[in-house]
Amino acid sequence: MTIDRSFVEPNDQFPLGMRVLAVDDDPICLKLLETLLRKCQYHVTTTSQAIMALKLLRENKNNFDLVISDVHMPDMDGFKLLELVGLEMDLPVIMLSAYGDTKLVMKGISHGACDYLLKPVRIEELKNIWQHVVRRKKTDSKEQNNSDKPCHETEGGQAVTVTGDSDQNGKLNRKKRDQKEDENEDQSTQKRTRVVWTVDLHRKFVAAVNQLGIDKAVPKRILDMMNVEKLTRENVASHLQKYRLYLKRISVVASHQANMIAASGGADSPYLQMGFLNGLGNVPSMVGSAQFQNTDVRSLSSSGMLDRLNTPAGLGMRGLSSSGMVQLGHADNLINPINNQNKFHEVILPGNQNGNIQGMPTPFEFDQLQHKNGVDHIGDLSSANNDSMVFPISSGLSDGNMNGNSSRNSFLGAPHNPVMLQGQPQGIKRDELCGNQSFVTVASSNREYSSRLADFRGCIDSWPAVQASEIQSNSFTSNDCFKQDTRSYLMDRKSSIAMDTGNKSNNNSSIAVVPAGFPVLRTDLQSQAAPRQQSNAEQNMNDTQKQGWDENKQNPSHGPNLMCSFLNSMIPPHGVPDPFSQRLDLENTICHRNANGNNMIGQRNLVDSSTVQHNEVEQSAIGTTAKPKQGNLINQRKPQDGYSFDDVGSLEDLVTAMMKQEEDKSNMREGGWVYI
Amino acid sequence: MERSQMYRQLANMRKALFDQGFLDEQFVQLEELQDDANPNFVEEIVTLFYRDSTRLIHNIEQALEKNPLDFTKLDSYMHQFKGSTTSIGAKKVTNECTQFREYCKAGNGEGCKRTFEQLKKEYALLKKKLEAYFQLARQIGPVESACRPK
């Protein structure tokens, strides 16, 4: 493998000097490819391992313009690499294979390949690959142009109605585009600095989108609302596009759940954020608020997006989560507040961060991302949520596995142990978790979640912050409830999950803001071991992360669980007060999965990055039903029913469980938010 | 031997390899990539091929000894091997690879084994011829031997 580590400036003589990353396990092919590319006067970096390739790309996305990869590789499927690169880095990828049967080519295209070349590759073909780079840039510009068009036109008072005549619009678009052509041209030809969608940024983005309304959100307005320097409309536009895709994807899955999860994670990758965002938006159940687009999350995860999400950059989820703190709102108050929360969108399943709110990112990815912020785990959580989450928050956190993909559940498990979380944190692999996220995976038995919870590291940290309505992004207005106890607790804690800090690594834990009374469990959300269990719905979230993307996709119904788990996970690291445990109980009960997939997430501000699996979320959603107490977290799902989380594991379950508990125990309210 | 004679001999060898179907157009591509910056590119890559493919051949042989045969695995190995052979333009060997794959798909163990024997023969034969070719080329001098006859 040859790696040229010297910094390569973006080339003004494009396509000469275009920076290509070539990946092929066959040394002969690789050498040949390298020579051919050099002959075309490109700048080439080669590696025979997909893992190495990802590492290089993640180190600095701006180092490369294009990736060429073999399909058949021993360490990772070429298509998977393709997806990951497309999602995380948004670079054009060309597939290479000795076989060119239609099915394979189709697969390549559907996974997002720009082109599919057959071996032995000829130099003539390579001479033209730069077009893919240009095309992509143009598409971004165009998108921006188009999206801005309406604004401009209306603002400009143009006679032609934007919405009307397509021809006219087309003309206008063209005109607009032409006007900007020069400007864009320069931009396209120059290497643009890639914008890193940090959790914080993503959070702002989501907030803006939600404020505007997903249908009306146009890049220009979003940009204005976000008010971030150096962010261009173009950046926002492309991010919006991804976000929309994400939403669509997770809409399949219980949207609620997604929201929950999304909230939790600060996905590193934009997707994560997206998922996150989505989740937030979609939480229908969320007290009317953000819908948690669990589905999006899920879809994301399924595609391994979670991974991306989990990447530090992506932890948008985290950020979201912060907003979407799942408020376990144990008390009645919580419930009410939850209603107000609408801004759930931010929350999102911690699990989602990993992209999987529903589907957990593939374990492989997760592992890689693990280090990133708990977000990775978020995805896991989601998947983990599949099991009935019973988050026994109990001693739970000690599982500490949060980080590891191991027992997620442990985290959330001990519902009755408020302290659990506390113990956990230690257990939790801190290294994985971002900071001291105590991942409180509420007792859900999310085994997976626990690990995920760990992933959520970030989530939890942000938890405190999140809680106090700090959840920045979310507007859990109802925060009051949780704020009560938790707020102080949270305050101390590390910056709120993602929301505040938007850092990926640290806070990504999705913080499920537990409504007052719920002890804030700072479990390292990272390990989102989303407690599927109802008790700790939140925990599941984390677990799901580990599950891998694919798994998560599943159950939409997990939503509620997710919440639950999420909630569960909110175990304040420090001596969680008992209320939490109580809460957890509630959660457990609540988390019972609602087949209808209430989006607990939506309700909860599942800030927690614990990637409560989407499933969980769904489940928790169920749980959360009706538990106002639960706080914002859960949409009022009917926690009471004693959910049986079958495989909820989702935050929802958790949340619901929690909610239930809430109802049962008035004291649940106190403060702690179980963060999953 | 006189230089021009050697050169002519080399050209003949080369022509024969093509005419007899040992090499195809891809080999020409390799030659074209050879230049001052990469003076021995063709030889290097061929050497690399023979070194790396030994391992693959060995794997396939082992897999063929198993009972029952794992066709998926065999196919996978052959896929990798074929990628290499096509890259250097080893025409006959590549053909055998294709044949082998067909047998794998059909689940024909006997066919696979037979084809593989044939493949090994072609592989070894090509290796000998190319070794001789490169040896002569080195004698003549890198630049000239790399040039494609006009």
From TrEMBL, chain A:
One example GO MF annotation: DNA binding
Sites bearing 4-aspartylphosphate, chain numbering: D70
Compartment(s): Nucleus
Superkingdom field: Eukaryota
Stored Pfam families: Myb_DNA-binding, Response_reg
Its biological purpose: Transcriptional activator that binds specific DNA sequence.
Name of this protein: Two-component response regulator
Species this chain originates from: Actinidia chinensis var. chinensis
Lineage: Eukaryota, Viridiplantae, Streptophyta, Embryophyta, Tracheophyta
TrEMBL record, chain B:
Entry's localization field: Cytoplasm, Cytosol; Nucleus
Span of the signal peptide: none
Keywords: Cytokinin signaling pathway, Phosphoprotein, Two-component regulatory system
Stored Pfam families: Hpt (PF01627)
Any one Gene Ontology BP term: cytokinin-activated signaling pathway
InterPro entries: AHP1-5/YPD1, HPT_dom_sf, Sig_transdc_His_kin_Hpt_dom
CC per GO annotation: cytosol; nucleus
GO MF annotation: an example: histidine phosphotransfer kinase activity
Record flagged with keyword Phosphoprotein: yes
Residues recorded as bearing Phosphohistidine in the entry: H79
Coiled-coil positions: none
Domain HPt: 38-133
Segments crossing the lipid bilayer: none
UniProt note: domains: Histidine-containing phosphotransfer domain (HPt) contains an active histidine that mediates the phosphotransfer.
UniProt function note: Functions as a two-component phosphorelay mediators between cytokinin sensor histidine kinases and response regulators (B-type ARRs). Plays an important role in propagating cytokinin signal transduction.
Name of the featured protein: Histidine-containing phosphotransfer protein
Organism of this sequence: Actinidia chinensis var. chinensis
